[in-house]
């Protein structure tokens, strides 16, 4: 990772950049899904801008003046944790997850797709334990797995 990583709350003027980083990372992470399981890009981006950024606690990781990662917390749930594809495997996801743990030391939960093997390995390396399984809502209809970390589930 080049430069110093700064993790801070999302500023209003950064919403477009954060949305782009989140969406590019999301698209790369669900490449295994069939086209009919995915939402339109503008629908996903609109959801991030109009729901996630408004109703969640959103943090960004900034390196060299650019947003390289996004973390959204909803209570004790890691609702979103995404790192720009070109910035992955540089400790940014770890830094965001450690930041989430510092904010919620009593515990965290999250959900990911069962087929997202890299995300599952990442969370398990960082002390999250797999629990119940389920199915994400349409159009995804993708098997999910719930994870927990810490004392509160």
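^ structure tokens above, recovered residues below v
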């Amino acid at each position: 990772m080049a430069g110093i990583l700064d993790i801070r709350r999302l500023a209003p003027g950064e919403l477009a950049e954060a949305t782009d980083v989140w969406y590019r990372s999301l698209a790369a992470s669900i490449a295994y899904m069939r086209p009919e399981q995915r939402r339109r890009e503008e629908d996903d981006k609109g959801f991030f801008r109009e729901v996630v950024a408004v109703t969640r606690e959103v943090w960004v990781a900034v390196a060299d003046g650019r947003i390289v990662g996004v973390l959204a917390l909803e209570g004790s749930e890691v609702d979103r944790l995404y790192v720009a594809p070109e910035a992955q495997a540089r400790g940014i996801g770890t830094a965001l997850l450690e930041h989430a743990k510092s904010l919620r030391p009593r515990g965290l939960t999250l959900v990911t797709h069962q087929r997202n093997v890299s995300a599952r390995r990442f969370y398990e390396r960082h002390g999250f334990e797999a629990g119940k399984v389920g199915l994400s809502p349409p159009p995804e209809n993708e098997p999910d797995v719930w994870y927990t970390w810490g004392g509160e589930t």
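The chain has a mean pLDDT of 90.
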